[in-house]
Amino acid sequence: MKVFFSELYFELKKNRGAMLGIMFILFSLFIAFLAPILAPHNPTEVFPDALRLPPSFIAGGKSGFFFGTDDIGRDLLSRLIYGSRISLSVGFSVVILSLISGTFLGVISGFYGGFIDRSIMRLTDLIMSLPSILFAIVIVAVLGPGITNAIVAVSVVAIPNFIRIIRAQVMVEKNRQYVQAAKLFGAGNFRIMFVEILPNCMAPLIVQASLGFSDGILNVAALGFLGLGAQAPMSEWGTMLSDARSYIESSPWMVTLPGLCILLTVLSFNLLGDGLRDALDPRLKKQN
Amino acid sequence: MNQNLLNIKNLNIYFKSDKNPRPIHAVRDLSFSLKHGEMLGVVGESGSGKSITNLALMGILGESAIVSASECNFSGKELLQLKEREFQKVRGGEIAMIFQDPMTALNPFLTVEFQIVETILAHLNISKAEAKNRATELLLQVGITSPKDRLKSYPFELSGGMAQRVMIAMAISTGPKLLIADEPTTALDVTIQKQILTLIKTLQEKNNMAVILVTHDLGVVSEFSERIQVMYAGEIVETGVTADLIKHPRHPYTFGLLSSRPGAVERPAKSLLPSIAGIVPSFHQRPAGCQFHPRCIHMQEDCKKYDIPLINGFRCIHPMKGPLK
Question: 3-state secondary structure string, A182-245?
Fold first, then answer.
């Protein structure tokens, strides 16, 4: 395991995009952790005399509000800083939820085959046959709007990817001789599945997890934009976008800044994911 | 209760197949026994049923296999009637197995230590710290120098011989009564071969552990095992004490195998080594009568007529008369 990660880091260091991604991710983690210290104002505090102020570096801006204020006079910079907390934890929860359940189902499906495999595969077909955001909307509509339900919905939509990737990998690995050897040393099915086979399926799983992170953030922001995710006054980026939509012509910074935040975060996770894929996939390695 | 560790009577293994409505009869009426601490060499060509017999003993043939036997007793347990849970205790605990290719039999993602300790903890009721100490001792026992470093290694950092030593250490870690070695040296260098087999022999004598040594190499079995069992087409064709069998093979197949070794029989200089013509008949087209008759140089008409029983340790009605050479 240790060798695996140090080798992975060595490969990753060669990839400039992935390193940029990692740096931005670390930067946003830093901001999210230190939000109470870094944010100049309380994200929900209203300044009635400072409505829709432009950023301070543009004519008409006030020095106390670096990125300006929104339509009811809340400091945009503070809201964006607190928003990073929400987005990162959302991405994290989505990955954890879909990773754990997807891995479990995928391993079982690939290992046992037969009826269990067929039923799990039809379930993933069912989820994948609908556009993912549409299906997430349906789930939120049933559960009711809110950040928690949005996370659940987005996780459910992400599960099939994990199941398929793990299943394919397990089906290859289960025929290896070390699996038979483990069995001959008296290991039970669950030990074989989760202690022997699963570590050997790590590579695609890590890639999918980092890509799933960005998908999760994007989908939850989309649900927020549609009014189904985080509810006002919560400073979630997608919700902020949706609130600012009507001011897109008069105060463009209100839409641009949260949009940029989403873009950069998602982009950096995608860069990292691609870098991991290049580093972990031996087939791609040979071509370069 | 009798004295034998392993008693097998009339073991039959069939394989169901989609193409063929009739199941394939892979191993027929196999009977043999093994005493405590005895080494039995099993030889035969590929496809003669050696490996599947072992896998059947370990109970890990797939669902397509039908295994039956009138007796399959391992130290008082009827193996074929064990439940999966009970069988897991036997596998690795009382019967251990080592494989042809040690590099693929170790999990590439886990350290040697993890894999040995895991096996020990699964079968013995000791603490993790004790298991780690035991792992170190075991590596010393199988002749690995600086075991502390090797424990931290991953399988890809080991050489083939070392990996096989680790496999042996894992196999003997729980003090099994029976070790099945399925061609343990085929993937290894000739110089390492001898070391590994000597190691198995030493451990066998020290731990009073019975060993089934499966191999293609008659030289290997004649040197190490007490008894030899020659298999052909899913049957035992000859069995006996090593020294006798090597000197005086009765069955023409054994005779053929033995005389195909360099220097076994006298022949003109620069002539080809004697060999047995043909190949093992496929499972689908078994000949009637003696299984070996299409390839046998001493074949006579009555060989084709009826199944020949195993009498006095060989399955032939026209056995070889004189000793080899």
Answer: HHHCCCCHHHHHHHHHHHHHHHHHHHHHHHHHHHHHHHHHHHHHCCCCCCCCCCCHHHHHHHHH
Residue A162, pLDDT > 60, answer yes
Q: Is B94 on the interface with A (CB under 8 A)?
A: no
pLDDT of A250 higher than 90: no
Cα distances (angstroms) measured from residue A275 to each of A109, A211, B182: 29, 11, 43
Choose the closest CB to B88 out of A176, A188, A202.
Answer: A188
Q: Does B108 touch chain A (CB under 8 A)?
A: yes
Tens digit of each residue's pLDDT (9 = 90 or more) over A196-220? 999 888 888 988 999 899 999 999 9
Answer whether A190 touches B (CB < 8 Å). Answer: no
Is A175 in CB contact (< 8 Å) with chain B?
A: no
Q: A68 vs chain B: nearest CA distance in angstroms?
A: 53
The minimum CA-CA distance between B142 and chain A, rounded to whole Å, is 18
Count of A–B CB contacts within 8 Å?
62
Q: Residue A288 pLDDT > 60, yes or no?
A: no
- Among B3-7, B40-44, B129-133, the range scoring the smallest mean pLDDT is B3-7
Whole-number average pLDDT of chain A: 88
Q: Residue A184: its pLDDT value, please?
A: 87
* B107:A186 CB<8 A: no
ipTM tops 0.90 = no
From chain A, pick out residues whose CB is under 8 angstroms from the CB of B104.
176-178
* Alpha-carbon distances, residue A189 vs A143, B97, B149, B167, B171 (angstroms): 36, 18, 31, 21, 19
Amino acid at B319: P
Query: Which residue of B104, B118, B171 is in closest CB contact with A176?
Result: B104
Query: How distant is the Cα of B119 from the closest Cα of chain A, in angstroms?
Result: 7
What length does chain A have? 288
SS3 content of chain B, % helix, strand, coil (to 5): 35, 20, 45
In a 3-state reduction of DSSP, which class is residue B6? strand
pLDDT in tens, A14-51: 888 999 999 999 999 999 999 888 888 888 888 888 78
Within 10 Å of residue B31's Cβ, how many Cβ atoms?
Answer: 15
Identify which of B98, B79, B76 has the alpha carbon closest to the alpha carbon of residue B90.
B79
